[in-house]
Each structure stands twice: as structure tokens, then as C-alpha cells.
Amino acid sequence: MSPPDRESPLSIRLRGVVKRYGPITAVDGLDLDVPEGTCVGLLGPNGAGKSTTMKMLTAQAIADEGEIEVLGYDLPGESKQARAECGVVPQLDNLDTTLTVEQNLVVFAHLYRVPRSERRDAVERAIGVANLSERRHAKVDELSGGMRRRMLIARALVHRPRLLLLDEPTVGLDPQVRQELWALIDAMRAEGVSILMSTHYIEEAARLADSVTIMSHGKAVASGRPSELVTEHAGRDAVEVYGPPAKLAEAEGSALAAGFRTRRTGTSVAVLGLHAANGDAAPEGERRPANLEDVFVLLTGEEIS
Questions:
Q1: pLDDT digit string, tens, across residues 99-113
Q2: Which of these, 100, 211, 259, 295, is most buried using a 10 Å CB contact count?
Q3: What is the pLDDT of residues 161-181, one digit of tens each?
Q4: CA distances from 37 to 80, 122, 179, 201, 211 (A)
Q5: What is 10-229's CATH number?
Q6: 3-state secondary structure labels for all residues of the chain
């Protein structure tokens, strides 16, 4: 079935989406846009509603209220058509460990109805993109954690999707492997694939995403380009004040009284919003650029996971 005859610059469009599980509202009036050809980061602490949002985009969960459109298809009614043009990388590894890398990809090329004449090339391309050529005949349970994550992405790409959904793609991986996967995600965006990536790694969102939506308790509390969010909520610069608890409490109180915003890290107080403090002198401390982590903590009030 061909896509609906409607023009939209958005790969994903959510308006007023609500999902409840009994008395718990996991997603509460969410608006979200993913423009075509961009990477959007869905950033939030554990329990913010990111994974529930991903499940609704693949119709594993059905919204109680609101509108969901994926690649021009209305969900859940047209979810089958939408899924055929999406690649999904789940948070939990669900690879078939009894098959080799190549066999897993052949199975999914068949499931995604890649034409028989194109399947071999599709599998070869996915193996190459994920840099798994030397392990193509290895069974999945012989792969490292990083290789298995690359394998999940290769599987999602075997049918050349227009949209890639990544649910916590680097959770539990060490920094070196995370960097490898970042390069792979960057390559997909360079090819024009639209990407929605949920994460609670601030550095990951700042590094990869064209724009970010920050979620807390099921709601979107801010959306925009990372640099713009930093300027709007935290200013350009921050002052980090170090010292014993009494000194930190005093610095925090003085900063708030002078019109600054602050965030406590346990060992220091970051004084933010220096650009909007009515000309008051910044407190003494170590000056640094404000960053997306500052914004995250200011808006969610959560510890970084």
C-alpha cells in the first residue's frame, strides 16, 4: 500500500497524546515533532515516559487520547503500513541467539518483504553499515555487547527504512562502544534517514540530536535545539562554586537572592542565568560554559541516571 496522499514535512507528529496504565499516567498530553531527515532526541530520566512513547509509535501500546501520525499514517489504524517503513531498535536485546549475524538479517529481510532479487544486497549493505563483515558467520551469542547493539541497528536498517526509532540505543555500554554507535547513527542521518532517539544520556542527546524534547513525569517540559535550550534556560556561562556544605548553602542562598538560577550537584553549586541577573556581579568560583545537563536538571529536578 502506498503512503497516504498528504504532504507533511514531519516524519512523526504527536498532539495531546495520553497513555494511562490504571491510575498511572505514563504520558500526559505529549506534543512531539520529528521533521524529515533530522535526529530528534527524547531526553528524560527513567520513568519520564520515553519508552511508553516509543511503544505507542510502533502500536505496541495504544494511546488513550490524542493524535499520532508516523510517516503520514494515522496510528493505530494504519500502524501496519507505518511499521513497514520504520526500523526499530528496542532497548532490550531480542536477537535470535541460535542464528548467525547473516542469518538474522536474512530472516528480517524476508519479514520486511524485501524483494527476493534484492535481499542479498540488502543483507550485505546492513552488515557493512554495522561493520560486522568479519563476524557475519558468528552466532549472536558469540558477539560482544557492542557488536550486538550494532547488530540490532543493522537489523533495523535491512529494508532501508525512512524512519529509525532508537529506544535507549547505548544503555549499559562503555564509552568506547557508545562512540562507535554514535558514528553509525550519524551515518544514518547523513543518508537522510529520520531518527527519533530516546535516551537519558545528556551527552548523547547534545552530540547527536538536531533538536531535543525533554520529558519529565510524562510531559514535554521543553523542546528545541540543544544550544538554544541552553541559552534560554541556563544562559551562556555558569560559575561552579566548590566547598563544604555550609559554604555551598551560603553560595546557593546568595545566588538565588541576587536573581540567579542554581543547581546542586552534591559537591558543588552551579550558578546559572548570569545573563539575566540584573547586572549583579557573578559569585566567585570556576567559570565554565553552561550545558544541556544544566538545563536537564533545572527542568526535571532529577538526578542524572
A1: 999 999 999 999 999
A2: 295
A3: 999 999 988 887 888 888 888
A4: 22, 21, 21, 22, 12
A5: 3.40.50.300
A6: CCCCCCCCCEEEEEEEEEEEECCEEEEEEEEEEEECCCEEEEECCCCCCHHHHHHHHCCCCCCCEEEEEECCEEECCCHHHHHHCEEEECCCCCCCCCCEHHHHHHHHHHHCCCCHHHHHHHHHHHHHHCCCHHHCCCEHHHCCHHHHHHHHHHHHHCCCCCEEEEECCCCCCCHHHHHHHHHHHHHHHHCCCEEEEEECCHHHHHHHCCEEEEEECCEEEEEECHHHHHHHHHCCEEEEEECCHHHHHHHHHHHHHCCCEEEECCCEEEEECHHHCCCCCCCCCEEEECCHHHHHHHHHCCCCC
Read off the pTM: 0.88
What share of the chain has pLDDT > 70, as a percent?
Answer: 93
Q: What integer pLDDT is reported at residue 303 of this predicted model?
A: 54
Domain boundaries, the chain: 10-229, 236-289
Distance CA 170, CA 43 (A): 13
Residue 171 is placed in which grid cell? 544503555
What is the Cβ-side half-sphere exposure of residue 36, based on CA atoms within 13 angstroms? 8
